[in-house]
Automatic annotation (TrEMBL):
Subcellular location: Endoplasmic reticulum membrane
Membrane disposition: Multi-pass membrane protein
GO cellular component terms listed in the entry, alphabetical order: endoplasmic reticulum membrane
Keywords linked to the UniProt accession: Endoplasmic reticulum, Membrane, Transmembrane, Transmembrane helix
Primary residence: endoplasmic reticulum
A Pfam family the protein falls into: EMC4
Record protein name field: ER membrane protein complex subunit 4
Species for this entry: Brachionus plicatilis (Marine rotifer)
């Protein structure tokens, strides 16, 4: 029986050496104890080799320039979405279109006042003035979309009757209903 136990120990030792992590479930004194193995075991994919530093100082400047242009063109990238949402909201005076117009008016002002904060994480480069100008123009385009939406909803005072109490409001020239024109 002693030879059987020693052969089991040898086979356990072989299996222990073949596996990196091993839990011996047959040990009686400590149930479910982890059998410690050779130190300096590295996880899968780890190597001790060091890689040479191939970074280029010009690469960092190029990445900073790309990031600053990405920030500068951010408001222009919002223009198609703002146009789509303003079209989807419709021209009726209701809760959703009013909330949208308020948001559309508020965001460009908010980002124009926080322009220095948007660009503070990036060093001032050779195109920083041009980038800030593009950022400002993008916000002005979004503001123009908001003002057009306000005008199409009738929220801007553009007629004389909006300002003067004695002027008659503009009369409708025609009414349409269900695809038919009623004069």
């Amino acid at each position: 029986m002693n030879s059987v136990t020693s052969s089991q120990n040898l086979s356990a030792a072989k299996s222990f050496k073949q596996r990196k992590w091993f839990i011996d479930l047959n040990r009686k004194p400590e149930k479910f104890s982890v059998v410690h193995q050779i130190e300096n075991i590295q996880p899968v994919g780890y190597t001790d080799k060091t890689l040479a530093d191939t970074s280029n100082p010009e690469e960092g400047n190029r990445l900073i320039g790309m990031r600053s242009w990405d920030i500068a063109t951010g408001p222009i990238k919002q223009v198609p979405m703002n146009m789509m949402i303003s079209w989807m909201a419709g021209n009726s005076i209701a809760l959703f279109p009013i909330m949208f117009v308020g948001m559309l008016l508020f965001r460009p002002f908010q980002s124009m006042f926080a322009m220095s904060k948007a660009f503070e994480t990036i060093e001032s480069g050779q195109n920083s003035i041009l980038q800030k100008l593009v950022y400002l123009l993008g916000n002005l385009v979004n503001l123009a979309i908001a003002l057009y939406k306000c005008h199409s909803m009738g929220l801007l005072p553009t007629y004389a009757s909006d300002w003067l109490a004695f002027a008659n409001p503009q009369e409708r020239l025609e009414y349409s209903f269900g695809g038919f024109s009623l004069n």
